Amino acid sequence: MSVHRDGIGMTSRRTRERMVQRLREQGIFNARVLEAMAAVPRHLFVEEALASRAYEDTALPIGFGQTISQPYTVARLTELAIGQRRPEKVLEVGTGSGYQTAVLAHMCGTVYTVERIEALQKKTRFRLYDLKVYNVKYHHSDGGWGWPKYAPYDAIVITAAAGEIPDALLRQLGNGGVMVIPIDQDGDQVLKRITRTDTDYEVEDIERVRFVPLVGGVN
Ligand code: SAH
Description:
The chain is an alpha/beta fold. The chain contains six helices and nine strands; from the N terminus they run H-H-E-E-H-E-H-E-H-E-E-H-E-E-E. Strands 5-4-3-6-7-8-9 form a seven-stranded mixed β-sheet. The protein has a two-stranded antiparallel ribbon with strand order 1-2. Helix 1 packs antiparallel against helix 2. The longest helix is centred in the N-terminal third of the chain and has 13 residues, at 13-25.
């Protein structure tokens, strides 16, 4: 994919500014999140034929049966996981197109991202390199196991829905760290925010969401 497909019509910075304005209307107020969403060229994370739809508030296919999350969802996950901090280490499960990865990379020291589909992650690695997003480490694995090598993490972001919160991920969350994860509940999905305190984990239900499922094993 070329990074030069930019600057005109539906993919310009102005189109992105309109997306950001819509995010504000949808209740995203974190200025740093909005700034990151304005900076990352979302149209370069979808297939070329879909580029003109990249800034609509919709999920789009990225191949391999997976989707890039809608802008609101990416902004919300980021705002919940990062808040006003600038975390040093963020673990992401479900690299996908790398769009969420790039938004997180804009706001933290290093993103450690885990993806189970090797070919998808390879494509994404090249894409982010082309975009000069260098503070990302990639791991091809089942993200249900997290990435113990670099634990503990200041924040953990899961971009696929799980039946329950994986224990391995709870263990890899640092003290004071925050994890956001969509969980299957009553035939629906609920986004949960988990905050690790000195002695416990606090769990909050945030809102209903729609993600592809977290699948065990690798491909
Ligand atoms: N954040 C991505 C969303 C991709 S969809 C984006 O913005 O494009 C969710 C991703 O999670 C898919 O790429 C899927 O392959 C991956 N995934 C599903 N189960 C997984 C698992 N157990 N471990 C790692 N990645 C997983």
